[in-house]
Amino acid sequence: MSKFFHSLGRKGKDLVKKKLGSNENRDSAAAAAAPSSATRMGDSGAAMYNIMMNPTFDQGTQWWFGMGCSLSVNHENGSSYGVGHGRTETWQGIAQEIGERLVLDEEYRFEAWVGIGAYGPEEQAPVTATVKVETESDGTKYNWIGSVTATKGQWVLLSGKFKIDNLGKSSVLYIEGPPSGVDVLVSSVAVIPTTPGASELASQMGNLMGHPAGTPASSMQPAAIQPSIGLLHNPTFDDGLKSWTQKGCKAYVTESLGAIGPETGKYFAVASQRTETWQGIEQDITGRIEESTLYHVSAKVRVNGGGVKEAMVMATLYMKGYDGKEQYMTLGRVNASSAQWSELKGEFLVNKLPARASIYMEGPPGGVDVLYNSIFCFKPERPKVEGPILFQNPRFGTNIVHNTNFDSGLKHWYPQGNCRLSIAHGCPTLLGPAAQKSFMDSPPPGLRGSYLLITNRSYDWEGPAQTITERLQTNMSYQVSAWVATRSPDQPGMKHKVDVCLSVDGKWVQGGEVLAGDVWEEVVGSFRLEKQPENVHVYLQGPGAGVDVMLAGLHIFAVDRSARFPMLRERTDQIRKRDVVVKLQSSNGEPLAPGTRVTVRQNRSSFPLGSAINHYSLENSAYTKFFLDTFNWAVFENELKWGWIEKLQGELHYENADDLLQFCERNGIPCRGHCILWETEDTIQDWLKPLAPPELEEAVHSRIAGLLSRYKGRFRHYDVNNEMLHGSYYKDRLGPQFLPYLFQLAHQVDPEAVLFVNDYHIEDGCDCKSSPTAYVEHIVDLIHNGAPIGGIGLQGHIDVPVGPVIQHALDHLATLGLPIWFTEIDVESVNEFTRADDLEVLLREAFAHPAIEGLMFWGFWEGTMCRKNAHLVDSDKRVNEAGLRLLALKEEWQTSFESVVNEQGEVPFRGFLGDYTISVDDFGLTQTFELVKGDEPAYVELSF
């Protein structure tokens, strides 16, 4: 009996034998006889219906194989289909050996549902069915069955007829046709003899198989194609290492490794015998990746062996262009643990389809095994755009902390841990300065001089707490203010870190942080909860054991951030505009007649508004257009960093920086240089770390001299040593005197460049290491030791911008008399209206402050930014609400109007600084002029 009988079940076998008049003895005799056409007919009695084995792929890949490519099966919505992937030639596809079930000279009808993969450059592609016959006498013969054009994401029926005149050694039916890199999809394949007797059998067999009578399996259309498999096939290693390759190492799939098991599913992969950081597992995705499409990366990883407890694991995209150029893009990274599975997340965007592409995992040093429980790369479902959030009874300015003056003793307050709470007197009687600025239309509430004394502290987390769950509204911006002080009998005068924190369903949220000693200090901060919590309590923590803490006037209140906008507009008008009188006259000096119509239009603002750009995105014409239309300054996101230019010692790669600089110079865009050095240890290249101090100093000298001499005079600014408040790599190895020396050396090489310090969390109150006070002290120390600092950089990666908190920081920094730039602005929120509101708050506060001389965004395009929900333009080129808000502010901050010449032949106005065109509408004549900064009115004479 043929193999097909075994797939029918007992009822199916009996029906076939009854229709053919066969019995078990006949089957046995036929099996023993020579393979004539008659005995083949008897042996293949079941072939009178559908001779295909596992026609609907319900049994996975059984009976099927990939011809020249890989084969996998997707099971979705009750349907299954085969996927031929990793294809490099048109003839490669999904195949099955059918020779032993064919009857010589019998005509067969073929039907199958086919499609092409969702990931690839082709929207449509041909799909063809062919029977390949290998014969001893005539060699290989190909019997074409039929062809159809398939459309991405849709199933289409491929049908045809064929007859075989020589069965040969092998007869393989295969589905082929799409170009290289395009997956071919197949479901419900039927090959049915067209003899009259077969039709009746087909009808009854159709009932057995659950199809309508007389309907072949192929006519049952499968469920819609769902590309849930994403870019990566076999993401959970259920099929071993199928579709994965070993990149410079050995790899295998297992259910366990000692005590380690998978976090989800049955299996995980192990990359072993690694000797280099780049080694791991890899999958080719050529042809599956789509242009201008956002992809998310998600992987569960772990490290093992090599004596390490933690190591960085990265997912990397490799692409080779049709011009032969190679590119590497980090898709995501995580500091993976040896004790548990860690989640790696990231996203990326491909601007131009590559000739070749692969995703591989790398990162840990040699000798460390990397474990992968799953690796997914997929197109995220774009969420529905939400509208602006409306609040019912927001109660702006109302303190949600009860009994803040302790009039009712300790009511509502309780201790965390074993500390003791008591009430004392002698604290400030006014709210802190930052909080006072939030009460625009009413006097700020006063304090009564009572404070909470916290003693007997054994741990840093011990302090007073109060439950505030029912008093919070989700998505509301809250401002935090409190007076705090500390007292340490063993360390008199010592300052300690003090935090106002929230515990939100067990998760920590920062409300503000300050260094405080025996003098009262104001804690400032802000927060917002985007999900409804079950339990929230506010508490005080920070100092170590034995340090007493004092708390007074804790206020948490919803803040109406837009209430400051009228005042900010007035300030903006004062500091960003200048009075100007344009005197219009004819070429012979006669004033133009009163009433002559004119149009004044500002063509360019002289205020620097820029963005970070990256070399990779220059291939995206929509990206470059938005940048050139919106911004007038640039900074390179990575391309000027030392780790990018000299990742390996002595191998210098300036090519990308050169291209970006040439692009900016062609378009008249000034550039900031970010950054010469970076003080935080996790940004230091591996080859620098083992260098002794003399060799490290020599390498730094070479870096500064090489970079600044190469680009001398071409970068207006440099961030000399990034984030010195948060790192101390060079300081620890070369001494504190080396930090001001870096500025001196940079100034010697390029005296025209303005040299900046640059750091984060200056403007939000949530990090005492980088408070305005700490930043001022740091800058003063550098200047005192000879650093020629010309500007102060605030990065501006802010979560919940609140105007008074930002102004508080800017006022403090402005005492240094140096220009201040926001150098890396981004604000993050899933709701793009909230993101737009946050952005408007930050930009208005900055633009209205006289010490601010430039605003730089840290990117603007979805999929190219460090923060996931901070973009202004979606990857599908839609300018979202945050982007529209920026464009609206740009328009508000430019001057354009229509007017008439007055009796004196003049057009007076107050306008923003920049370049103007004035047109005399009655004569169709135009002139241009520039309005520059000045305290006195500007007089401009234009002759027509």
TrEMBL record:
Residues 19-40 are annotated as: Disordered. PANTHER family: ENDO-1,4-BETA-XYLANASE 1, GLYCOSYL HYDROLASE. GO terms for molecular function: endo-1,4-beta-xylanase activity. It comes from the Eukaryota. GO terms for biological process: xylan catabolic process. SMART domains: Glyco_10 (SM00633). Belongs to the glycosyl hydrolase 10 (cellulase F) family. Gene3D superfamilies: Galactose-binding domain-like, Glycosidases. Residues 601-889 form the GH10 domain. The lineage of its organism: Eukaryota, Viridiplantae, Streptophyta, Embryophyta, Marchantiophyta. InterPro entries: CenC_carb-bd, Galactose-bd-like_sf, GH, GH10, GH10_dom. This is GH10 domain-containing protein. Residues 28-38 have a biased composition (Low complexity). Keywords: Carbohydrate metabolism, Hydrolase, Polysaccharide degradation, Repeat, Xylan degradation. It holds the Pfam family CBM_4_9. Signal peptide: none annotated.
